[in-house]
Design goal:
Largest sheet: 6 strands, antiparallel
Radius of gyration: 42 Å
Helix content: 55-70%
Distance between the termini: 50 Å
Oligomer: single chain
Shape: globular
Number of helices: 34
Number of strands: 14
């Protein structure tokens, strides 16, 4: 490329250095030819792939550095030194954040205890006797159990923190007053107008950036800056304490108190539990309170997006990105934070009363609390409660955060479907829900000007008071109104022309009132129209959609402007109405034609309900309301969806008096009942499913742990409910019912008896024989006691059915694990548990290993049989055919190879081997023992051995059978997973070798 840069149009290769200008190197074509000839003789090398990828090298360096830092690599004194440093840091941490506040709090408490003012204030505290009684009982229980953390210690530390915070604010106030009085707070005279004192502090501390003529800060100025920094830190800490710790804790205590009757408990039992484990009690109430806050916040924010924007969008503030949360806390004043927290506390208390306290009273009054299993919890602590309870609460809190983050939009969709269904039945759709605009309907017209009386015309012709008549707020020349006068761009200016013969006209008072009313009612507009359109044959217009999404009439402008001296402007969009100017011909005496201006009134004709909430509206990183599609807040620019939303009907315009208001109250009551039912089902169904699984596993009631049962049931029921919600969101409940009726009506019996036989055989093997054998294996190895093995107990049909249900659960659990490929990294990366790393390459290796384990490998290394895992494996193919046959009656897709040869028969064969071989060996061993006992005389020499075998017949038989079963099942598993075990062994060997010899070493080629 030739450029005018002083190189005279010469072309240079970016890989070659620029030519020298001393004339030694050739220029132009000769130079390019020489370069090409030289390049031909340069040695060419094949690209060499790096031995290790860059990421792997970085990981190794980080691992080596971390091991050296912790002391795992290197001499033993380095590890001891690190342990000593750890103990020193922990001691310093406890001293700074626990011992010093405790000492300060204890000193303040001793000072306040002897103060008559404090004692007088305490005397005015209501119900202080009950509070003192509760605190005394809690302290007595803590002292009785001799726990490490007690309530006086926590209260003393909290008092110490608040005392130090108060002292910092007090010192700052005193210093500010002193500096203002004596004018000592002059840190930087050149930067006096800068409002950010923190940046001034850092700039002042950096002595290298100060100019020579700048004055150094004085000691008083440095002291003021230190107080400001300390006050900022204390302010942030106090606000975070109140908002993130105290408020959730108070809500948790309130929830506990309001639900005591549901759990058939009382205050004394809660006090005794808190006295025995204060940390767990505080953490429990905090987790309950923060969970309640999260649920309320998510539900209210979703409801804001579901209903019409005129209802809640101007009242409830949406979630906004907080890139500088600490900065926002510092900028806003203390009274502002206090006001917001009190408002939030009031809202939470009202919702707690409505949705917790009232339902609790109702359930206790009707006796339904005894039917909900959640209110009769079963707890079993594997570890000590002081350790297990905090771990479970932490796991629950993190799981709830992940659940709300993933399924919060489903809450909004559920609210949307509920309101759409109920509003459609109750006739409240136009009052509550957002709808799009299908078209516009002409409702009537009205002229702009009124003809002036003859007396006024005589006054005008005589020149008497003409100016006052014209400027009486309403009177203009009709020629000015009719012929047009230029106005603002984008507005419709009513016509005027000075050359036309002036005929006096008067602006209608209706337009003045309409311009002054920002929200005119339908009654006011319809009652003042001159001509009303016919209802039987309405005139419709589709209208146009602007770029911003707003729906308007064709050939209309945003505003209608009246000419002087009226100076009235009316927007063309008034609520649900659209205004458009039209001129018509009016004939008068002498066949003179004048244009008369008429304003048309069109009303929105609503269409379908807008699906809410929009997808991804809560993504804080993509922008505001315009990008997210949510309802705008305050002065935000509206999205295209909101601009195109039809105007809702006010509750006062609902036909009969108070009819919409009564319907709204009834809708709120039905919603309250629905929320109560949903909450009871949400906490009962997962718990019942988990307890049912514990029952099938033959776990005694004393070992049943409801938190674990709730987690197991939630893992089963949440994906099922998610699939049901997706089905309902596609077509609704009516569509599902129609599909069910259509499915039943399309049933046709298969014509091929072979396919029927294949289906029947598959069903028998998969649904009856294999589950029964798996259940019997579990029953014989883990359930049956030595009394049963001794023959003192019988087996009932109920126990056999229970074993079949257990086997059915195990075999379908195994199918789910294989179908979703849970042991694959892609599964855990998809649910957000696994991050980083080359997941695709790792999964390719794992799938190859699994395929080699499931099938046979030929000489070229190709797998000749399908694997079990994944949606394309054997179980995936079986599932596809089963769905096609059961849901669509596609009998032609029945395949014997996929259903029987590759799936049902191999599973049944392995299960049969697992129960038959140990049973055969068991009976052979029993027969051998019986023969030895019968045909050989028991002498004193051999009697010890035989008597040991038959010392306890039931224990001997149980141990013998379970030993054979463990050996056979272990052999089957080892054979099935031989390839993965070999791969894992090689990987472990390689990792151990690299860790011992290679990691952290620099490898060099050997030079001879």
């Amino acid at each position: 490329e030739e450029e005018d840069d002083g190189h005279n149009g010469e072309e240079f290769n970016v890989l070659q250095p620029p030519p020298e200008r001393d004339g030694h190197l050739p220029a132009g074509p000769q130079r390019r030819a020489d370069i090409q000839n030289n390049v031909r003789f340069e040695p060419q090398f094949e690209p060499v792939e790096p031995i290790l990828e860059q990421d792997d090298g970085n990981d190794m360096e980080i691992q080596v550095a971390l091991d050296e830092l912790l002391g795992f690599r290197g001499p033993l004194p380095a590890l001891i030194r690190n342990l000593i440093w750890l103990l020193a840091f922990n001691t310093t941490y406890l001293g700074l954040f626990a011992f010093i506040p405790h000492t300060v709090g204890e000193s303040v408490y001793n000072a306040c205890a002897n103060s008559t003012v404090v004692n007088t204030i305490i005397d005015y505290v209501p119900n202080q006797d009950e509070v003192v009684k509760v605190i005394t009982a809690l302290n007595d229980e803590s002292q009785r159990q001799n726990v490490a953390l007690q309530l006086p210690d926590v209260a003393t530390i909290a008092l110490g923190y608040f005392s130090m915070a108060f002292m910092v604010f007090f010192w700052q106030a005193i210093a500010t007053v002193i500096f203002k009085v004596f004018k000592l707070n002059d840190r930087h005279s050149s930067n006096h107008n800068n409002q950010n004192h923190d940046h001034d502090l850092f700039m002042a501390d950096n002595a290298e950036n100060l100019e020579e003529n700048e004055v150094r800060p004085t000691l008083a100025s440095q002291f003021s800056v230190a107080l400001e920094c300390a006050a900022a830190i204390v302010k942030v800490g106090v606000l975070l304490f109140f908002k993130m710790l105290l408020l959730p804790l108070l809500l948790g205590v309130g929830l506990d108190v309001t639900t005591l009757s549901l759990f058939d408990s009382n205050i004394n039992s809660r006090v005794l539990y808190a006295g025995g484990d204060l940390f767990s009690a505080l953490l429990l109430h905090w987790v309950i309170g923060i969970t309640f806050m999260l649920l309320v916040t998510v539900s209210v924010l979703q409801l804001r997006e579901v209903v019409h924007p005129d209802l809640l969008a101007r009242v409830i503030r949406p979630q906004e990105p907080q890139p500088d949360l600490l900065g926002n806390l510092l900028l806003e004043s203390g009274p502002t934070h206090t006001k917001r927290m009190l408002i939030s506390l009031g809202i939470y208390v009202v919702l707690l009363t409505v949705h917790v306290w009232l339902p609790s009273r109702f359930l206790v009054a009707v006796g339904l609390n005894n039917l909900v299993p959640f209110f009769r919890p079963k707890l079993w602590h594997v570890l000590i409660p002081q350790l297990q309870v905090p771990i479970e609460l932490l796991v629950f809190h993190l799981s709830m955060l992940a659940f709300l983050e993933k399924y919060k939009n489903h809450i909004g969709e559920l609210q949307h479907h509920w309101l759409v269904f109920m509003c459609d039945k109750m006739g409240l759709t136009d009052f509550i829900l957002p709808q799009n605009i299908a078209s516009f309907v002409l409702v009537g017209t009205r002229r702009v000007c009124l003809t002036v009386s003859s007396d006024d015309q005589v006054q005008l012709s005589n020149g008497s008071n003409a100016e006052s008549l014209l400027m009486n707020g309403n009177s203009v020349k009709e020629a000015d109104v009719d012929q047009g006068k230029p106005g603002l761009i984008g507005d419709t200016d009513l016509p005027s022309d000075a050359s036309t013969q002036p005929t006096l006209a008067k602006i209608d008072q209706f337009w003045i009132k309409l311009a002054n009313d920002s929200n005119p009612s339908d009654e006011f507009i319809l009652s003042n129209l001159e001509t009303v359109a016919e209802i039987n044959s309405p005139v419709r217009e589709i209208g146009v959609t602007k770029r911003n999404g707003q729906r308007v009439l064709s050939f209309s402008q945003p505003n209608i402007r009246f000419p002087p001296p009226c100076k009235t402007v009316i927007p063309s969009t008034l609520g649900a109405y659209r205004l458009r100017r039209r001129c018509e011909n009016r004939y008068e005496e002498g066949s003179e034609v004048n244009e008369s201006t008429i304003i048309e009134f069109w009303r929105e004709d609503v269409g379908q309900t807008i699906p809410r909430p929009p997808e991804g509206w809560d993504d804080l990183g993509v922008g505001g309301a315009e990008t997210q599609g949510r309802w705008a807040w305050n002065n935000e620019r509206k999205s295209e969806i909101e601009e195109g939303v039809a105007q809702r009907l006010p509750f006062s315009q609902g036909g009969k008096l108070y009819s919409p208001i009564l319907k709204m109250i009834f809708l709120l009551f039905l919603s309250w009942v629905a929320i109560l039912v949903v909450i009871c089902l949400a906490i009962s169904f997962p718990l019942l499913i988990g307890r049912g699984i514990f029952f099938l596993l033959h776990i005694p009631d004393i070992y049943v742990h409801d938190p674990a049962a709730l987690a197991i049931g939630a893992c089963i029921i949440v994906p099922a409910i998610s699939k049901i919600c997706e089905r309902l969101s596609d077509g609704g409940a009516l569509s599902c019912w129609e599909q069910l009726k259509g499915w039943a009506s399309h049933f046709r019996r298969p014509k091929s008896t072979t396919k029927i036989r294949v289906l029947m055989t598959t069903a028998i093997l998969w649904l009856f024989l294999s589950p029964l054998l798996v259940g019997l294996i579990f029953d014989l190895n883990f359930v049956r006691s030595k009394t049963w093995w001794a023959g003192n107990e019988t087996t009932t049909v109920r126990e056999v059915m229970k074993s079949w249900c257990t086997g059915l659960m195990f075999i379908h659990l195994w199918c789910a694990v294989c179908f979703f490929d849970i042991f694959n990294k892609e599964f855990w990366a998809g649910i957000g548990v696994l991050f980083g790393g080359n997941v695709a390459d790792d999964n390719a290796d794992n799938n190859g290993v699994a395929a080699a384990a499931d099938g046979e490998v030929d000489n070229q290394g190709d797998v000749t049989r399908k694997k079990w895992e994944g949606k394309d494996g054997r179980i995936g193919q079986f599932t596809k055919i089963s769905k096609a046959v059961l849901f669509n009656w596609e009998w032609d897709k029945v395949d014997q190879v996929i259903l029987l040869d590759d799936f049902a028969i191999p599973v049944a064969r392995q299960v049969f081997i697992g129960i038959s071989v140990p049973s055969i060996l068991f009976f052979i061993c029993l027969c051998t023992t019986s023969v030895i006992t019968r045909y050989f005389s028991i002498t004193s020499a051999s009697g010890g051995f035989v008597s040991l075998l038959v010392f306890e017949d039931g224990l001997y038989r149980m141990t013998l059978y379970r030993t054979f079963s463990a050996i056979i099942i272990s052999s089957q598993l080892a054979k099935s997973f031989s390839a993965p075990l070999n791969c894992w062994f090689q990987a472990a060997h390689k990792a151990a070798r690299d860790d011992r010899y290679l990691i952290g070493k620099t490898l060099k080629n050997y030079e001879r």
